[in-house]
Amino acid sequence: MSYPNYGPSYYGPPPQTHPNGTTILVLGILSLVVCAILGPFAWNMGNKAIREIDSSGYVYENRGMVQAGRICGIVSTCLMLAVVGLYAIIFVFFGGMALLGGITSSY
Q: What is the DSSP string of 32-78?
């Protein structure tokens, strides 16, 4: 069943969709689930898309998708940096312990 075309609505132009909305959401979700290195890309693309949406003056129907992908990218990036920092601390700690163990065992 098809509906007749009544033309544009009386309340302004129809909402548009941002072309990168789905891409940003998919990158954000994949950065949380599969590969955390995609997080900064989702964050950056989301920031750029939000700026474009805000400066355009049009109503975009997928702003929530862009925002969700951006937030997933932020969370994934923070988790990735925390894990890398934790590994760095563990590496420095055990490396220092190995150095101290090597120095004390030679005497």
A: HHT-GGGHHHHHHHHHHHHHHHHHH-S-BTTHHHHHHHHHHHHHHHH
For residues 40 and 32, the answer to whether their CB atoms sit within 8 Å is no
- Token reading at 78: 């923070």
Tokens representing 70 are: 């951006």
- CA-nearest of 33, 65, 29 to 46 is 65
φ, ψ of residue 46 to 5 degrees: the values are -65, -40
**pTM of the predicted model, to two decimals?**
0.78
Angle, CA 46 vertex, CA 63 and CA 40 arms, to 5°: 150
Q: Which positions ≥6 away from 52 have C-beta within 8 Å?
A: 18
- The percent of residues in the chain predicted with pLDDT above 90, rounded, is 66
Tokens of 57: 């003056």
